[in-house]
Amino acid sequence: MLLNRRIIVGICGGIASYKAVDLVSKLQQAGAHVDVILTEHAEDFVRPLTFSTMSHRPVYSDLWEASGRAAETHIALGEEAELLAIVPATANTLAKLAHGIADNMLTAVALATKAPLLLAPAMYRDMYLHPATQANLALLRDRGAWIIDPEVGRLASGSIGPGRLPDTEVLLGAISTALGRNGDLAHRLVVVTAGGTHEPIDPVRYVGNRSSGKMGYALATEARDRGAHVILISGPVALEAPYGVELRTVETAIQMRDAVQSAVTNADALVMSAAVADFRPEAAAAQKLKKDSGGGDGGSGSEARGLHIDAHGGFTLRLVRNPDILGELTRAPGAVNGQTTDKGEPGKRLVRVGFAAETHDIVSNAQSKLVAKHLDLLVANDVSRSDSGFGTETNKVIIFHATGIMEDLPVMPKAGVAAAIWDRIVPLLSTV
Question: Read out DSSP for 246-292?
């Protein structure tokens, strides 16, 4: 998404300007062409040489330099830019932008460019909350500016409140979202599931699997970067929600089933990458099971419901089958994601993509699942491989198409696998 994109990063005179160094560095590492514009007082916090070293490009600041070339430069920068991101945006610069004041290089470029404007306000708490600042932000938002809300936390002054510049990953997510607004998934609603499920045995124990959720989160991020509205339904994972993605958290397979059925009502595509548990305990104990319960159930009343600790300390757990989430979503012609409309009229079809984590007989198992669940695509991987198992940063997948095509992809980072999967989903959406 960032490769070869032309981005201007404007930096204002605030203490948070030092964080912009990492942002510029990460953008350059991702392959973007980054032009940095500093306000006069930004140079008091971070020198231009720092940013030119990170961006590998000249840094601009003086609109009134003696040669007069800056007058041409600010127009050229504005015309070439695909995005103007001001990080951090101070109260002073926000006021200038809101009222069309162009008295320095940054504000002149902002007035001259037709590129989207992304603003990351960062300042003292009371300055941010002041009615004038809030009115300026509202005005800029009404004009189409993308506003990244500041975080709440400890500020440079020592006070606690809103005004902190978000971390680089959030800023990168916002920039990618803004750049992808007209992508090949623009105006599409997609649902992605991720992670495993935890099926409770008692209040402290559960049956689960090794899924990290990384593949599902990569799929959600890629869809966001292509312009989609993304609903990410996630089981328990140790991952931060991608910026701009609607996260809905669940724990059990039944909760995920209910969340998916609710989310796909108006969706265009469902990518079911979650590793949903096939089985769950017949009933969870109300209290923690004790290993020394001596054949009873620790007073939980659970023994008759499939949980039993015998006199020798052995533990018997009866499992029952979980619902088949994809199997329950019918694909009848004229149905709206398994249901008819309120008026009984036919509606759009849901493109459905499943995943199969296998350890043997990958091709035959995947082909059987593709047919049984009436999927458009099925993505299978061998989780016994060291470069493709749960928790890895790479994946090795085979994509099976309902048309009979089978694509054996090479080992790639999960972000690359996500891009390849969406590349194959997009053509299918033409029938939706």
Answer: EEEE--SHHHHHHHHHHHGGG-SEEEE--B--SEEESS--SSPPPTT
Q: Is 209 part of the annotated catalytic residue set?
A: yes
Class for the domain spanning 6-179? alpha beta
pLDDT in tens, 312-322: 778 888 899 99
Does position 246 have pLDDT exceeding 60, yes or no?
Answer: yes
Euclidean distance between CA atoms 185 and 130, whole angstroms: 38
- Interatomic CA distance for residues 285 and 118, integer angstroms: 51
Domain with CATH 3.40.50.1950 in the chain: 6-179
Q: Taking the mean position of all CA atoms in its chain, how far away is CA 135?
A: 30
pLDDT digits (tens, 9 = 90+) for 16-53: 999 999 999 999 999 999 999 999 999 999 999 999 99
Cis preceding-peptide flag for 88 (omega within 30 of 0): yes
Nearest-angstrom CA–CA distance, 91 and 130: 10
Domain at 189-280+322-431: CATH code = 3.40.50.10300
> Can you read off the two tokens belonging to residue 210?
């090794």
The number of helices, as runs of H, and strands, as runs of E, in the chain is: 13, 24
Bridge partners of 83, per DSSP, are 7
Judge contact between 247 and 205, C-beta under 8 A.
no
Indicate where the chain has its CATH 3.40.50.10300 domain(s).
189-280+322-431
Cα separation, 175 vs 127, in Å, equals: 25
Q: How far is CA 204 from the centre of its chain?
A: 30
Question: Which residue is catalytic, options 182, 209, 266, 322?
Answer: 209
